[in-house]
């Protein structure tokens, strides 16, 4: 199954005061895809292939740096929420959540995820995007950034690509709100001053390039919406709401949006946080061979950004979702508290 591709250009060009029936229908397509599949492909004219390439080029150079250099940029006492997280630190939810494990056993064999045998083999770098609140109860989630030495272009490249992806998410969030029958700013007003994180991962395919290797175990994202640019190596599998497993193919020039746990909360379970994994597949192995022939980097970089609800905002079903039959499963909870609870489970809480 191919995910729908929504071109954001008509919405960006439209008058904010009056949406045409065609644009209203397009907003309905956005909300329907997020509800039914937990994912959506978008084309945003502000996010170019060249932007994504420039970002991935720099992250490949960083991730292939020596390990002791990268370890200078770790901040475990800040929950790893800025700087680098080494491989074998982040624990996939499916490894520690017994209820999830039972659900996985009940899945048809062809839809079951690959079973992780330990923490994820990926590295990750967290770089905050956008302003942070001057007054917050969650200072660790809103910490100052870490800039690696010797990367003069780092801040400009990270900020440029991160801000473009946040701008794309904001448009999708507006369109989804309209499609769900909420106020246009129902989601974006809660995103203001959120702890948004540009969060590229790096997986060493020279070391972990065997078919079937789990780079990131089956999990959901704890944030609001996640956005990815196209990776140079395939391997991302997602699960639709009906339980079907789909290998994602992101067309050139497109961005992939996935639902996180915070949108599940705000829609009273109407949207479910999308489950996904990253695994070395036969298509990954083919891409490794091609990269070797072309003498390119064998680090698989994901061009990923996590968009969050503001830490001090309250997660609760919005508008008509209060009447949802599942709404009682989503009691009011401060977004920052929810994030800290989730980080503790996946081993990113660090030492205070």
Q: Mind explaining what this structure looks like?
A:
The protein is α+β, with helices and mostly antiparallel strands and 352 residues long. Helices cover 32% and strands 18% of the residues. It contains 11 helices and 15 strands. It has helices at residues 9-13, 21-37, 49-63, 67-71, 93-96, 98-106, 154-179, 188-191, 261-266, 282-293, 335-345; strands at residues 5-7, 39-43, 83-85, 123-128, 197-198, 201-204, 214-219, 225-229, 236-239, 245-247, 255-259, 275-279, 299-307, 314-315, 333-334. Strands 1, 2, 3, 4, 5, 6, 8, 11 and 13 form a 9-stranded mixed sheet that branches. Helix 2 crosses helix 7 (154-179) and helix 3 (49-63) packs across helix 7. The longest helix has 26 residues, at 154-179. It is globular.
Helix content: 25-40%
Q: Taking all residues together, what is the mean pLDDT?
A: 92
Oligomer: single chain
Low-confidence stretches: none
Distance between the termini: 45 Å
Order of helices and strands: EHHEHHEHHEHHEEEEEEEHEHEEEH
Secondary-structure-derived class:
alpha+beta
Shape: globular
Q: Quick one: biggest sheet?
A: 9 strands, mixed
Radius of gyration: 19 Å
Strands, count: 15
């Amino acid at each position: 199954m191919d995910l729908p591709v929504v071109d954001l250009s008509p919405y960006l060009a439209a008058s904010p005061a009056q949406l045409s029936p065609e644009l209203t229908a397009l907003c309905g397509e956005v909300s329907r895809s997020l509800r039914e599949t937990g994912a959506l492909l978008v084309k945003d004219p502000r996010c170019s292939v060249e932007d994504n390439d420039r970002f991935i080029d720099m992250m490949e150079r960083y991730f292939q740096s020596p390990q002791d250099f990268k370890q200078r940029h770790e901040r475990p006492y800040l929950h790893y929420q800025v700087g680098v997280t080494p491989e074998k630190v982040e624990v996939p939810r499916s490894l520690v959540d017994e209820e999830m494990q039972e659900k996985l056993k009940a899945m048809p064999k062809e839809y079951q995820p690959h079973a992780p045998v330990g923490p994820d083999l990926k590295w990750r770098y967290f770089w905050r995007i956008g302003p942070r609140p001057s007054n917050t109860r969650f200072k660790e989630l809103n910490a100052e950034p870490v800039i690696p030495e010797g990367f003069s272009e780092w801040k400009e490249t990270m900020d440029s690509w991160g801000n473009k992806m946040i701008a794309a998410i904001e448009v999708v969030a507006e369109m989804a709100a309209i499609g769900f029958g909420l106020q246009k700013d129902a989601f974006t007003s809660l995103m203001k001053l959120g702890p948004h994180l540009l969060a590229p991962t790096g997986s060493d395919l020279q070391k972990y390039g065997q078919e079937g290797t789990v780079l990131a175990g089956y999990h959901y994202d704890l944030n609001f919406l996640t956005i990815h640019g196209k990776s140079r190596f395939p391997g991302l599998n997602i699960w639709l709401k009906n339980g079907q497993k789909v290998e994602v193919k992101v067309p050139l020039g497109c961005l992939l949006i996935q639902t996180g746990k915070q949108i599940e909360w705000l829609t009273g379970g109407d949207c479910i946080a999308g489950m996904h994994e990253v695994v070395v597949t036969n298509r990954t192995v083919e891409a490794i061979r091609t990269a070797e022939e072309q003498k390119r980097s064998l680090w698989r970089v994901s061009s990923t950004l996590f968009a969050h609800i503001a830490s001090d905002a309250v997660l609760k079903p919005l508008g008509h979702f209060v009447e949802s039959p599942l709404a009682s499963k989503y009691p009011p909870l401060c977004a920052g508290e929810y994030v800290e609870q989730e980080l503790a489970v996946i081993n990113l809480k660090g030492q205070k």
